[in-house]
Automatic annotation (TrEMBL), chain A:
Top-level taxon of origin: Bacteria
Claim: Transport is one of the keywords in the record: yes
ABC transporter domain ranges (all copies): 3-233
Name the UniProt record assigns to this protein: ABC transporter ATP-binding protein
Automatic annotation (TrEMBL), chain B:
Domain of life, per lineage: Bacteria
GO cellular component: membrane
Protein name: ABC transporter
This protein's record includes keyword rRNA processing: no
Transmembrane residue ranges: 21-45, 57-80, 107-126, 138-156, 168-187, 193-210, 281-300, 306-329, 350-368, 374-394
Keyword Transmembrane found: yes
């Protein structure tokens, strides 16, 4: 079992934004985190990667908590944030270098891992450029690349498809499926439900800081009595019925 | 709310912010220092004036260089913000009037220091027996007129033109100015003055003729304003930490050999800080300026006490300006996620120590005019101060 979250409650100030959230992601599993804007997806992610301290609850990654061994815990996570966060002053090559340094990956190994990705994203000629001058999609590619070269056991990807061109979306999906086959766990938050439906093994629907439903598409269909419905259908119906949209 | 109100409000906020910062800049220490340095400079200038020979050319050459720099510096305070390019586009026409107001506003400010410069430079013209009192009036008016022409050019350059148009106007303005200044300083004050008046009418005609037709060059408007604000902040930042907006970054490939120093490759923090320091002009520029100004001041002083005061003061200013480095590391999400991050304070300390050691060495070497013992003494004093600053003052300040 890779990531296990039990009764996680947390938020920014004293009022909790997420309440009593429990779920787990196994090895080789890709889980989609679904919810409206402000539902608590990003806050959940921030707690998992250890940017925020939970009020309550337990989070374990491969059996260890962040407190027990922060360095090992962090090394196991590759995080791709919703908006690209890059260093204004470092070139693309130096982004790879500093990532290798921070995650204790040999520089030569990191470059080896990066080369096919650079080619795939058509960035191989821009190693000496500042990514901060790139377009949104290209910046996102740099973030993806830096996360993938550390070869973590848990990938956390926040809204990965925005700004990427169709080919890059296809490539990213392929890369994620490849990692899944290799036994990594992936948590992806997204609004692009058709993509999520295609690639995710399980879904967690989060609303107002609480888990509303979780399981495979089949389980969700059964639970809500909607045979053959797509994830989009289920979600919209659910939102209507439960008044998410109010 | 009209667009005029919007800008009025911005202006109020701008002045409020600036006056708040100014309070910190003009603290007691600094005012004393300025009075001290100002007095010393005035005295030196007076002595220099006495030593000028009648009909000497060199002093006027120096005056010419300073005048050129002064005329072609500064820009119009527009208070444009990046989001304006999205939200205010439909109101573009309304900007014409506002921008003209802004231009006048900025010109009043710029011309006040032009007049000051003219006043300070006037004795040079008198001492060399070049002109009389009426000539001085022409000289002052000349400065004001050319600064105004420069302001008109800046206004013009913020509108949409073909790149070549802009360049042509700039080149013609610079060349006419140089000719007119040379005439004024070396041949005839009145003819120089007359050329400036003719140029003024010519350029006003060019600028305002195109004014109504052309729309604003938003990219440039935003960029110029950001640069202007940044420049102000970089000065204020000498005294107090200011919020950083976007800063200019240059690749500076020629500096890459510096990153080969082993200590700069050990942990992500110092890896990033060292590169950021060099490529971000906010930091490296200030550091270099302080280094150069301090060295020059020490070089010209033969008194070891003054040398010591200047040296320690400049080391302090240098170190002080580097304190925000820690904030940058602290705010960055990356260094909170990296499993293998080093000690943040230690990384900042290492970098500051390296930079202060370089400054200490340079300042000590430049004090050779005060004798060999002074060099050694200053080296000792600087080392003590550097260690004090890095290992006692810095941790205490960052804690507080």
């Amino acid at each position: 079992m890779s990531l296990r979250i039990e009764n996680l409650t947390g938020g920014y100030s004293r009022t909790p934004v997420i309440k009593d959230v429990s779920f787990s992601i196994g090895d080789g599993e890709l889980v989609g985190l679904i919810g409206l804007n402000g539902a608590g997806k990003s806050t959940t992610i921030k707690h998992i990667i250890g940017l925020m301290e939970p009020f309550n609850g337990q989070m374990q990654l491969d059996g260890k908590t962040l407190k027990e061994d922060p360095e090992r815990y962090r090394k196991k996570i590759g995080f791709i944030p919703e908006t690209p966060l890059l260093y204004d002053e470092l070139t693309l090559k130096e982004h790879i270098e500093i990532t290798a340094m921070a995650y204790d990956v040999e520089l030569s190994t990191a470059m080896e891992r990066a080369t096919p990705l650079l080619k795939k994203f058509r960035l191989q000629d821009r190693l000496e450029w500042f990514p901060s001058d790139f377009s949104k999609g290209m910046k996102q590619k740099v973030m993806i690349l830096c996360a993938f070269i550390t070869e973590p056991s848990l990938y956390i990807i926040d809204e990965p498809f925005l700004g990427l061109d169709p080919i890059a979306i296809r490539d990213l999906i392929q890369m994620m499926e490849q990692k899944k086959r290799e036994g990594a766990s992936l948590l992806m938050s997204t609004h692009v439900l058709t993509n999520a439906e295609k690639i995710c093994d399980k879904f967690i629907i989060i609303n107002n800081g609480e888990i509303y439903a979780k399981g495979t598409l089949e389980q969700l269909r059964k639970k809500f009595g909607m045979r053959d419905a797509s994830l989009d259908d289920i979600y919209t119906r659910l939102a209507d019925k439960e008044g998410f949209l109010k | 709310m009209t667009i005029t109100d919007l800008f009025k409000e911005r202006q109020t906020n701008y002045y409020k912010r600036m006056s708040k910062y100014l309070k910190y800049v003009l603290n007691d220490h600094f005012v004393i220092l300025v009075l001290f340095l100002g007095g010393a400079t005035a005295l030196a200038y007076q002595n220099y004036l006495k030593s000028i020979q009648v009909e000497a050319v060199l002093p006027r050459m120096i005056l010419m260089i300073i005048t050129v720099i002064a005329v072609f510096s500064g820009s119009i305070r527009t208070l444009i913000e990046p989001a304006d390019a999205v939200f205010l586009l439909p109101k573009e026409k309304a900007l014409n009037k506002l921008m003209k107001k802004n231009m006048v506003h900025s010109l009043i400010f710029h011309n006040s220091y032009m007049l000051l410069l003219g006043g300070v430079g006037a004795p040079i013209l008198l001492e060399t027996d070049y002109t009389g009192r009426i000539g001085l009036v022409f000289w002052l008016l000349f400065l004001v007129i050319w600064k105004t022409i420069y302001g008109l050019y800046i206004y013009y350059s913020l509108k949409q033109h073909k790149k070549t148009n802009n360049k042509n106007v700039l080149i013609s303005m610079v060349s006419v100015f140089l000719i007119s200044l040379t005439i004024l300083l070396f041949f005839s004050v009145s003819i120089g003055f007359i050329t400036s008046i003719i140029s003024f009418f010519l350029y006003s005609f060019v600028v305002f003729k195109s004014d109504e037709r052309e729309s604003w060059n938003w990219e440039k408007l935003i960029e110029t304003e950001q640069k202007r604000i940044q420049k102000i902040y970089s000065i204020i930042n000498l005294f107090i930490e200011t919020p950083y907006s976007k800063h200019r970054v240059k690749r500076l490939k020629s500096m890459d050999f510096l990153y080969a120093i082993p200590v700069l490759k050990k942990v992500p923090e110092i890896y990033y800080l060292s590169r950021m320091f060099i490529r971000n002009y906010n930091f490296s520029g200030l550091y270099l300026r302080l280094l150069v100004i301090g060295s020059i001041a020490i070089y010209f002083s033969e008194n070891w006490i003054i040398n010591s005061v200047i040296s320690v003061l400049f080391l302090y200013l240098t170190g002080f300006q580097l304190v925000p480095l820690e904030q940058i590391i602290k705010k960055s999400i990356h260094f909170r996620l990296y499993p293998n991050s080093g000690n943040k304070l230690k990384s900042v300390q290492q970098l500051i120590l390296m930079l202060l050691v370089i400054s200490s060495l340079v300042y000590s070497l430049f004090s050779f005019n005060a004798g060999n013992t002074a060099v050694l003494g200053l080296l000792f004093l600087n080392s003590v101060f550097t260690l004090f600053f890095t290992y006692l003052y810095l941790p205490a300040r960052l804690k507080g």
